[in-house]
Amino acid sequence: MEQFNQQLFLILNATPNSSHWTMVLAHFFAQQAIMMIPAAALIGWLWVPRRELIVKMLITLCIAMILAKIIQAIYPHARPFVEGVGYQFLAHANSDSFPSNHGTAAFAFALAFIFWGRMIYGAAFLIIALGIAWSRIYLGVHWPMDMVGGFLVALLACCLTDLIWSGLGKQVLNKLEMFYRRIFATLIQRCWVKY
């Protein structure tokens, strides 16, 4: 598996001869695209509103990131540039690579939309998640299997969220909405945000 992982990485990894536009695109996906998660969550809560979906997505994201940290502690894996494989075009700390935190978060966000009935949005965010995954391999800071691991962790987190939601979800949502309505009462009255 390690040999396949390295071979696939070398196929996907940029080189000094890679085109300028693919480098620009990769840097956008690697650094800025992840910001679509909090932006979409904020829009989904304040203006759309899709509050049940947003709370499920946030729970999924929390579970996914906790699982990723546990896996990184149990199964430390060096990044490609640490092992001297390929080329690195993005500055990054020498932290454990498996599973990818960026990949885990992006896939958790996209899969939450797919799991809970917003297929068109889920498909769009899945394309963005795949772009994030590609970019971080292309720029030399992750292995392909780091992204596969992120996807699987996100999938497991969605399943666990479904279990948690069936027992506690409605109560959590009601309390969060009550808190929101107190804090944002003035903005709600002025119709700047949704009730």
TrEMBL record:
Catalyzed reactions: di-trans,octa-cis-undecaprenyl diphosphate + H2O = di-trans,octa-cis-undecaprenyl phosphate + phosphate + H(+)
Name one matching Pfam family. PAP2
Q: Report the top EC class in one word.
A: hydrolase
The superkingdom of the source organism is: Bacteria
Keywords from UniProt, A to Z, are: Membrane, Transmembrane, Transmembrane helix
Residue ranges of every copy of the Phosphatidic acid phosphatase type 2/haloperoxidase domain listed in the record? 53-162
Family matches, as Gene3D superfamilies: Phosphatidic acid phosphatase type 2/haloperoxidase
Protein name listed in UniProt: undecaprenyl-diphosphate phosphatase
InterPro entries xref list: PAP2/HPO (IPR000326), PAP2/HPO_sf (IPR036938), UPP_Pase (IPR033879)
TM spans (from-to)? 20-46, 58-78, 123-141, 147-168
- Catalytic activity, EC: 3.6.1.27
